[in-house]
């Protein structure tokens, strides 16, 4: 009866766990972190008066992380530990020892030899000891590797490599090219463009205007917006955003990489953000009569003299 109860409650617990996983929303924009900040995508942005708490780096991005993992980071923790010397030999020999001794105790002997006496056990231990000695000698003998470079040729991966000149567009570390960046000023016209983009992107998202979003965002950010809008439509919902008003804004970082400019802006704004039933228009989540405040870091990018576009969103 006890075993039946255990299986019964275990099945219930497993069913609840599966239900919770299926009911979890897929990275909603309001709490998401996605896009690209160029070479700083995987760096935490600077704190500001508008966003005083440290913000984690972008979580969803098509920009590869070519930086080495820090000690204690998830990537470093996932790195497999180096194999110990003689691991295979010790494993095989350990198996032989266990098998031989157990066989002796059961009267079968090592390798099927008969005999259960004390002398047979000693003989088997001596044989195993010889195998251990031979095995360790075999696995510890490793051929010396010849140096890949001559005595007068320096490896391109040594720590003594000369740093790249500041005027070069890329600094090379091993085989990975990391774009250099320089800080740039943000003019009043740029700030007005950022504020206008906040209103226009929010309005276009609430109206599900794909064309307007495509004009004001990078292709990567547009793909994330389209994914969320598609999920809402599949679930019979619609996210309506209206009445956006910027309350506070501050430039966190602004820099140039090659011909491309980036600017990360901490913005605190309020808006009426509700989730509606697509068929009836009834409010499912949120309050249509009360605006809510949100603090986010929006990164804008432009190529040359082109217009700024939304390149990344991070929740503060």
Features:
elongated, 9 strands, 7 helices, single chain, alpha+beta, two-stranded antiparallel ribbon, Nuclear Transport Factor 2, Chain: A, seven-stranded antiparallel beta sheet, 316 residues
Annotation field: number of helices = 7
Helical proportion, percent range = 25-40%
Biggest sheet character: 7 strands, antiparallel
Overall average residue pLDDT: 73
Q: Give the oligomeric state of the chains in this entry, treating copies of one chain as homo and distinct chains as hetero.
A: single chain
- Poorly predicted runs: 8-29, 72-98, 101-106, 108-115, 142-177
Structural class: alpha+beta
What would you say the CATH architecture of the domain at 31-60 and 181-315 is? Roll
Shape from CA axes? Answer: elongated
Q: Which sequence of SSEs, written as H and E, runs from N to C?
A: HEHHHEEEHHHEEEEE
* Tally of DSSP β-strands: 9
Straight-line N-to-C gap: 52 Å
CATH topology of the domain at 31-60 and 181-315: Nuclear Transport Factor 2, Chain: A
Rg, please? 32 Å
Strand % is 15-25%
CATH class of the domain at 31-60 and 181-315: Alpha Beta
Structure description:
The chain has 316 residues and is of the alpha+beta class. Among the domains are: 31-60 and 181-315, Nuclear Transport Factor 2, Chain: A; 87-135, no CATH class. Helix content is 36%, strand content 23%. It has seven helices and nine strands, in the order αβαααβββαααβββββ. Strands 1, 4, 5, 6, 7, 8 and 9 form a seven-stranded antiparallel beta sheet that branches. A two-stranded antiparallel sheet has the order 2-3. A hairpin with a 5-residue loop joins strand 8 (292-303) and strand 9. Helix 3 (87-106) packs antiparallel against helix 4 and helix 5 packs antiparallel against helix 6 (210-216). Residues 8-29, 72-98, 101-106, 108-115 and 142-177 have low confidence and may be disordered.
């Amino acid at each position: 009866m006890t075993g039946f109860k255990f299986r019964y409650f275990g099945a219930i617990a497993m069913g609840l766990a599966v239900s919770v996983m299926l009911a979890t929303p897929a990275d909603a924009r309001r709490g998401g972190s996605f896009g690209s900040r160029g070479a700083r995508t995987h760096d935490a942005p600077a704190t500001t008066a508008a966003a005083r708490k440290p913000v984690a780096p972008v979580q969803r991005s098509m920009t590869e992380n070519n930086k080495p993992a820090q000690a204690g980071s998830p990537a470093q923790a996932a790195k497999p530990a180096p194999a110990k010397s003689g691991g295979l030999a010790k494993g095989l020999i350990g198996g032989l020892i266990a098998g031989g001794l157990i066989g002796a105790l059961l009267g079968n002997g090592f390798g099927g030899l008969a005999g259960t006496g004390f002398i047979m056990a000693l003989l088997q231990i001596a044989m195993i000891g010889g195998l251990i000695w031979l095995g360790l000698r075999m696995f510890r003998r490793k051929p010396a590797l010849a140096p890949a470079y001559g005595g007068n040729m320096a490896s391109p991966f040594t720590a003594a490599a000369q740093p790249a000149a500041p005027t070069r567009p890329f600094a090379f570390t091993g085989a990975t090219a990391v774009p250099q960046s320089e800080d740039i000023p943000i003019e009043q016209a740029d700030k007005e463009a950022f504020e206008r983009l906040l209103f226009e992107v929010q309005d276009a998202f609430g109206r599900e205007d794909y064309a307007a979003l495509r004009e004001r965002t990078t292709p990567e950010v547009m793909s994330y917006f389209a994914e969320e809008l598609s999920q809402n439509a599949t679930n019979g919902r619609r996210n309506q955003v209206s009445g956006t008003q910027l309350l506070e804004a501050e430039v966190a970082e602004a820099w140039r990489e090659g011909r491309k400019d980036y600017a990360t802006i901490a913005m605190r704004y309020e808006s009426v953000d509700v989730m509606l039933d697509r068929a009836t228009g009834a409010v499912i989540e949120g309050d249509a009569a009360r605006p809510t405040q949100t603090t986010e870091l929006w990164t804008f990018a432009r190529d040359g003299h082109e217009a700024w576009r939304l390149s990344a969103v991070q929740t503060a």
